[in-house]
Amino acid sequence: MKVFKHTDSTLRKELYCEGKFVILGVAFGWNKRKGLDIFIQLAKLLNDKYQIIMVGTSSDIDKLLPASIISIHKTANKQELVKLYSMADIFFNPTREDNYPTVNLESIACGTPVVTFNTGGSPEMITAKTGAVVKSNSLEESVAIIKDIYTKQLVFKKEDCEEASIAFDSNSKFQEYVNLYADILE
Asked: What single-letter DSSP state applies at residue 101?
């Protein structure tokens, strides 16, 4: 059974985000490398039509965050994380160094487009239908893209994201590896 897929939930209501454009960030060990400073600056630049939710925070991180950011220290299980990805309008990943972040894939599989920095392997899975890649460390470009998505000048469809995630399905990837090695051994 595929865990990461779009799932309806009541989280928008529970988190008091109804009618807002939700920007989600998920990381383990928030720090400058993961873009903590970018989220803090982003919150100061966006008005109350936007709601930033950060998952994977801690009490120490909470002290650094503006009151406008919803901080969730950890999720109870994968299903709760799936509901967060699914309810978000975009997933923002301003990572400064990552090999191939699974959070991008998880978000896309849940039907939520990704905005990420052009760093490491982060942009590798992003297409014109699944999100946008911005210049590394560019808060200005990130804000512009987020606002374009909010105002529908740039549109992404859940169905396109979900369809794109099929290319990363573990079963088909496993079979590709088996076929590759079978060809090599012949």
From this structure: -
Assign residue 45 the CATH number of its domain: 3.40.50.2000
Closest of 149, 98, 107, 151 to residue 126, by C-alpha: 107
H helices within 32-74, ranges in order?
36-45, 59-62
The residue segments making up the domain with residue 54 are 11-185
Establish if 2 belongs to a structural domain: no
* Mean pLDDT confidence for 68-78: 95
Evaluate whether 72 touches 54 at the Cβ level (below 8 Å): yes
Phi and psi, residue 131, nearest 5°: 155, -160
Quote the pTM value.
0.89
Checking if the pLDDT of 153 tops 80, the result is yes
Number of neighbouring beta carbons within 10 Å of residue 135? 12
